[in-house]
Every structure is written in C-alpha cells, then in structure tokens.
Write a structure and sequence with these properties.
- The protein has two helices and no strands.
- By secondary structure, the protein is an all-alpha fold.
- The chain has one domain.
- The longest helix is centred in the C-terminal third of the chain and has 19 residues.
- The protein is elongated and about 35 Å long.
C-alpha cells in the first residue's frame, strides 16, 4: 500500500468519526466534518493526479 492510500483511509475514518450523528460529536456541529471532508477531497484529487 502506498502512503496516499493509507492517508486516504485514515482521513475517511476520521470523517466518519466526526459525523454529528454520533453521541460524542453531537455538539460540534458540521465544522469538523467539513474540514475533514475538504482534506479527503484534496488528498483524493492529489492521489488521482499522481502527486502522492
């Protein structure tokens, strides 16, 4: 597995962890999931372009 694949998997798991539906993150709002979602999109684009 390449570093990009591992990074993408970790970011997707972080995105699932900050979804406001979970009890531990219900008061956080959509800020953390938006930030992690943006990071997932950036890493995915870089992975597709071959930069990672």
């Amino acid at each position: 597995m390449s570093l990009g694949t591992i990074l993408l998997i970790v970011l997707i798991l972080a995105l699932v962890g900050v979804i406001p539906a979970w009890p531990h993150s219900s008061g956080w709002g959509y800020g953390p999931s938006g930030i992690v979602g943006l990071l997932v999109v950036i890493v995915l684009v870089m992975f597709v372009m071959g930069r990672i």
